[in-house]
Each structure stands twice: as C-alpha cells, then as structure tokens.
Amino acid sequence: MAETGPTTLGDLAFEVRSKNAGPFWITMELFMRDAEGYGIAADAAFLNERTVAELYGVDETRIQMFRIPSLNVVKISFPRPVGQGSLRDRDIHSGQQHVPLAMLPVPTAC
User: Of 57, 20, 60, nearest to 44 (Cα)?
Assistant: First the structure.
C-alpha cells in the first residue's frame, strides 16, 4: 500500500490557478470545494502574506489577498519578478506559478 503525504491546499480545492494580471502582476486563485476547505484557505493564521512571500520570494508588503466567502475563493496578487515577455521571463502567461501554493501542506490542526 502506497503512503500518502500530507493534505495540501490543492487537495481541498476544486481548482488552483495562476495567470497574468497585466504585464507586471501575477494573480492566483484557490477555488475551494466547500466551506470547510475555504475556512482553511481563508485562515489568516495559515495562509497570509508572509506565507506567500516565503513561497514566491516576494516582498510581503506588496502582496494583496482577497477572501471571498460567498464563492469559497481566495485570490492572491503580487508583482511579477520580471515583466511579462522580458528576456528573463520563464512563464510568459504565469500559468505555472500556482504549483507551490497548491502543494502547500495544510497543518493537521486545521
């Protein structure tokens, strides 16, 4: 029998996605399956600006978080490390940036 790892935000979500929010910002969205999962994702003690800053190496004062309980959605936006389409841009559509967020383990206390 295979071992299973810890529960992640991606396990609790219907969808986790990232995309451009203009050429200089990235937006990520957590579409949670239910109110219980939303409660975990929206818990500021667990998922906050500091957590996102550590995951993505950005200044936590530049991170914007929006919690939308009526939709069970958490939206996170922050500046891209480089402008879209610039020489060092490795993900022009920011479509792969959600992976560290989706893989974030949920604390067992949640």
Answer: 60
> Could you give the count of Cα atoms lying within 13 Å of 95 in the half-sphere of its Cβ?
2
What string of pLDDT tens digits covers the 110 residues of the chain?
445 778 999 999 999 999 988 888 999 999 999 999 999 999 999 999 999 999 999 999 999 999 999 999 999 999 988 778 888 877 888 788 899 999 999 987 65
* Residue with token string 């914007």: 64
Whole-model pTM: value is 0.88
Whether 84 and 77 have beta carbons less than 8 Å apart is answered as: no
The strand ranges marked E within 1-110 are: 13-20, 25-32, 64-68, 73-79
